[in-house]
Specification:
The protein has one domain (5-203): Rossmann fold. With 204 residues, the protein is an alpha/beta fold. The protein has helices spanning 16-19, 31-44, 78-83, 123-133, 155-158, 162-176; strands at 50-54, 70-75, 89-92, 110-114, 139-144, 179-186, 197-203. The longest helix is centred in the last third of the chain and has 15 residues, at 162-176. The chain binds S-adenosylmethionine (SAM). S-adenosylmethionine is lined by residues 16, 20, 28, 55-57, 59, 75-77, 94-96, 114-116, 119.
Length: 204
C-alpha cells in the first residue's frame, strides 16, 4: 500500500495538547464493544504480565478478574490517566511530537491501543518503537470501531471503510518492520452494537 504525506494530515493540525486539554471521562464505544475489547485482552495479554496501555485514558478495559504485575498508561490527559484505576503509573507524552517511547528494550509483556491508532501522524515510528519496548513474541492488541474524533484522525483513516482500516493498520505494522504473525479479527458483537475489530501482532 502506497501512502503519501497527505494521508497522514488531519483537518485540525493544531497541537494535540489543545484538543486533549479537557479531561473526557466518557466511553468512546458502547458496552458490548468494550466487552469485546476486554475479551481480546483476556485472550491475548498475559496474566501477571507487565502491560503498556498506549494512548490511554481513565479506562483501560482490562478484565477485572485478571491480575497484571504492572500496568503503565501513556496518553495526553493527566487527569484522565490519574483517574484510571488499572494504572500503576502513567505518563503524558505527545506521540505526534515525540514518537519514541521512554522505556528500556523488552520492558513489557504485552500492549494495547484502543480506539486511538487513527490519531497518530507517524504510526509506523510509534509501532516500531513499541516493538522495541516489548519482549520478543509479546503481543500488541490494536482495537477500533467506526467512531472517531474526525478532526483529529488522519486522512487515510477517514477515507477508508472498516476493512480498509484493518488493512491500513496491518500496513503500518508491516512498514515498522519488526512485527510478526499479524492477524486481523472481527469481534463485532452484533449488528445492533458498535462494530469492534482488531489487529494483533507479535514483537520480533
Ligand atoms: C478516543 S480516546 C481513547 C482512550 C482509551 N484508549 C479508551 O479506550 O477509552 C483517544 C486517546 O488517544 C490519546 N491520544 C491522542 N492523541 C495522542 C497523541 N498525540 N499522543 C499520545 N496519545 C494520544 C488521548 O490521550 C486519548 O486518551
Amino acid at each position: 500500500m502506497q501512502l503519501s504525506a497527505q494521508d497522514f494530515q488531519r483537518w485540525d493540525d493544531t497541537p494535540d495538547e489543545y484538543f486533549y486539554q479537557q479531561p473526557r471521562m466518557v466511553t468512546h464505544i458502547d458496552d458490548a464493544a468494550i466487552a469485546a475489547v476486554t475479551q481480546l485482552y483476556r485472550e491475548y495479554l498475559p496474566a501477571n504480565g507487565v502491560i503498556l496501555d498506549l494512548m490511554s485514558s481513565w479506562i483501560s478495559h482490562l478484565p477485572d478478574d485478571v491480575d497484571y504485575k504492572y500496568v503503565f498508561g501513556l496518553g495526553m490527559n493527566a487527569a484522565e490517566l490519574a483517574a484510571n484505576p488499572r494504572l500503576d503509573d502513567h505518563l503524558v507524552q505527545n506521540l505526534n511530537v515525540n514518537p519514541t517511547l521512554p522505556f528500556e528494550e523488552s520492558s513489557f509483556d504485552g500492549a494495547s491501543i484502543c480506539v486511538s491508532i487513527d490519531y497518530l501522524t507517524d504510526p509506523v515510528s510509534v509501532l516500531r518503537d513499541l516493538s522495541r519496548s516489548l519482549k520478543t513474541n509479546a503481543p500488541v492488541v490494536i482495537t477500533f470501531s467506526n467512531r472517531c474524533f474526525p478532526t483529529k484522525a488522519i486522512n487515510a483513516w477517514l477515507q477508508r471503510d472498516m476493512q480498509g482500516r484493518l488493512d491500513l493498520v496491518e500496513t503500518f505494522l508491516t512498514q515498522a518492520g519488526n512485527w510478526t504473525n499479524i492477524q486481523q479479527l472481527d469481534r463485532s458483537p452484533s449488528p445492533a452494537t458498535d462494530p469492534l475489530v482488531a489487529v494483533i501482532a507479535y514483537a520480533n
